[in-house]
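User: Good morning. I'm curious how fructose -6-phosphate would be positioned relative to this chain. Could you predict the structure with it bound?
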Amino acid sequence: EKGGWSSFMAKEISEEPEAVAKTLLGRLVDHKVRLPELDSLGEGTLENIDRIVIVACGTAAYAGMLGKYAIEKWSRIPVDVELAHEFRYRDPILTERTLVVSISQSGETMDTLLAVRHALEQGAKTLSICNTQGATIPRDSHAVLYTHAGPEVAVASTKAFVAQITALYLLGLRIGEARGTLSAEQIAENAAELLAIPEKIDEVLVASQSIGQLAHWMTDTQSVLFLGRNVGFPVALEGALKLKELAYIHAEGFAAGELKHGPIALIEPGQVVFVIVPSPRDPNSLHPKVVSNIQEIRARGARVIAIAEKGDAAVLPFADEVIPIPLAGSLFEPLLAVVPLHIFGMELAAAKGLDVDQPRNLAKSVTVE
Ligand code: F6R
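Assistant: Good morning! Here's the predicted structure, ligand included:
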């Protein structure tokens, strides 16, 4: 039931804090990662794998890209992320030391299921990250790590996305723990970051209340671009996908560093560009690079909407609008930065009078190839 909400999507976005909290529940205890459900992968699997392949479609694949950043950083195992439908048909290299992690909210996506079955035939280990108890993909996999976002009714995925990222980060910490690539202190630090996320998303929900107005003046907009770097890149892709599917607007997400390699030619006066700005405290020092990207597009007339850390004074002179997010470690910023983009997609669709929960031509679970 929708309760008092105008749409299931509005309700589900409001449940993003809870989706993260419930996915963490009972899994971070005494600074240790408890994921007994991984035991069915077989003893020694986490220590012995030499490669991870994440397979998924759509939004779930963007969660997978974020999983790659975290898992590689924490466990030093190479991670590839592939769209399930591309993976399946190119005879991918898989061995018994490959862990194939599928991500699917519904657990029924045919493309993802076929990728998992192919991995099983090749002798790889398979782990399903899934939001639906007893669905086909988890049943066919060696192990399942459930996300606990609760049932998602709106066709566009929102709360399941943040829950998927949470589950992937737990997996990354667990593998880092098993392989000794993370110290107990590092695990405790990252666990604390994760546990703080639900409250921070609550703050973002409050700070995002002005997005409705922003959407209102954009109902005639023909094209919106999204720029992000590092973990901001999958967030940009997610923001663009939501606009396409909900508001039927041409939208594209780019890696900000790619701008000068082509996409900057698209910038003309009035072009709306969302920019996901890394924290000025970012250890990779990406902040000045993204700020200079903003200056470049602003000089060509772009309307810049920046999603930036609260108190980031460097973006203020160059952005038409700033949506502030609370301070968090770099890897954790996507869990906050994506929330205003989910809201924006929904608000723009609503402002255009479209059905937010049931966009045209789409189904909640895609059970055909
Ligand atoms: C986008 C969206 C889709 C799904 C994709 C995978 O908002 O909902 O891109 O993420 O179809 O679906 P699942 O996760 O059920 O496999």
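Residues 184 and 283 are 21 Å apart (CA to CA). The pocket of fructose -6-phosphate is lined by residues 57-60, 104-106, 109, 112, 156-157, 241, 245, 365-366 (CB under 6 Å).
Let me know if you'd like a different ligand tried.
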